[in-house]
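Tokens for chain A. Residues wanted.
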């Protein structure tokens, strides 16, 4: 049997803009801005009114990815909780010791903890976080009042897709490589945001395989989603094909669906050049959900 190794892989002719790095950073903003004088890679909670929003970051990232959006929502009165998913913000080995079930359990736990204390509980997630938001909406039913999916992938494009195929079952590196380096940096068009965005420098292949499994799980769960659904995606996303957004919107059985395709951003739309549009869309959608009659809670 071939030994497990960590490989520094060089892909000639391509500095990938893959969403396997579209994950997280520490940077900061005392007010919503893209400057980074302080670290904001930690979980956060911003107390507001009786409408709670759970913010969920992406694969290999930290809550920094959702901090700008969270602060904009807080300005509109929402209570906001930014999670740090298990295995994230520590070491790559920690991430490789987790699976999608661990990440999903953290989101479910946040919703169930907030539910008795808030009139409305909503979830917004970026990339993997979007998948987790959709999964929670499918599983928890009326306990989730609205959900926003930001660039959630049902498949991976670019280098991310190739790495998944190389290291997955039947691939030439399956069982032989524990991690691969990220090449190129985050899939973010905004140069300042890309520079501020810090995440793991390697992709753990075990956790990547679990992410790929989870994409298939969520795809199968979409018809179970009944909560109002906002789907935002960028046409120029190099990580998650825009077709994922269209499939999510079409297959969900939500009472209300809004889809918007952004023209100028790349994958990490929560911090990219159209981040203010994203924040305005999420705030308006959740504000409307916050005015709607409460649903029966299972």
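Reply:
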């Amino acid at each position: 049997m071939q030994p497990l190794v960590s490989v520094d892989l060089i892909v000639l002719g391509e500095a990938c803009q893959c969403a396997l790095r579209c994950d997280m950073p520490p940077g900061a903003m005392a007010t919503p801005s893209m400057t980074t004088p302080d670290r904001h890679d930690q979980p956060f909670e911003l107390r507001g009114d009786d409408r709670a929003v759970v913010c969920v970051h992406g694969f290999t990232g930290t809550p920094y990815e959702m901090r700008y959006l969270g602060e904009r929502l807080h300005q509109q009165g929402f209570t906001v909780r930014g999670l740090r998913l298990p295995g994230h913000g520590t070491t790559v080995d920690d991430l490789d010791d987790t699976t999608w079930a661990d990440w999903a359990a953290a989101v479910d736990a946040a919703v169930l903890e907030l539910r008795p204390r808030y009139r409305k509980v909503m979830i917004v997630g970026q990339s993997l976080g979007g998948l987790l938001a959709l999964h929670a909406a499918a599983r928890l039913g009326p306990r989730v009042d609205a959900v926003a999916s930001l660039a959630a992938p049902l498949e991976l494009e670019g280098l991310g897709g190739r790495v998944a195929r190389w290291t997955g079952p039947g691939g030439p590196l399956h069982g032989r490589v524990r991690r691969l380096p990220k090449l190129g940096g985050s899939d973010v068009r905004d140069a300042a945001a890309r520079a501020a965005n810090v995440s793991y420098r390697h992709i753990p292949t075990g956790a990547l395989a679990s992410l790929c499994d989870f994409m298939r799980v969520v795809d199968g769960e979409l018809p179970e989603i009944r909560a109002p659904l906002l789907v935002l995606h960028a046409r120029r996303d190099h990580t998650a094909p825009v077709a994922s957004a269209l499939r999510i919107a079409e297959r969900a059985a939500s009472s209300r669906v809004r889809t918007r395709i952004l023209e100028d951003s790349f994958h990490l739309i929560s911090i990219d050049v159209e981040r203010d549009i994203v924040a305005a869309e999420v705030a308006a959608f959740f504000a409307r959900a916050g005015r709607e009659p409460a649903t029966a809670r299972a």
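DSSP finds nine helices and ten strands in the chain. Residues 25 and 197 are 4 Å apart (CA to CA).
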